[in-house]
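# nightly structure sweep
# worker-07 picked up a monomer target from the shared queue
# config: single-sequence mode, recycle default, output format = structure tokens
# input follows
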Amino acid sequence: MNKSISAVGFSLTKDQSDLINSKLKRVDYADNLIVDLILRVKEEKKFYFDATINFRWGGNGHVTSDDFDFAAGLNKLMDVLDVKIKKEKDKVQEKK
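# output follows
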């Protein structure tokens, strides 16, 4: 899985970057299912998280979240991302 993390409008601190990397370990079970995971973080008045997942079978998923707190917004994103990956995985397994 190729992971691409970018910050828009600000620079990620080392703590924020470490937090993102530790949270992304949560979806390591799907490492062989995902080609690319593109995560963009944008800071305006709050943090906006935007993730795009490209699956090996050509499908893709897009999830977003936002929060005034960086960690809380990231946790929301990871919850939605986890559900999205599991749904796609189940959908593909049903077709087999």
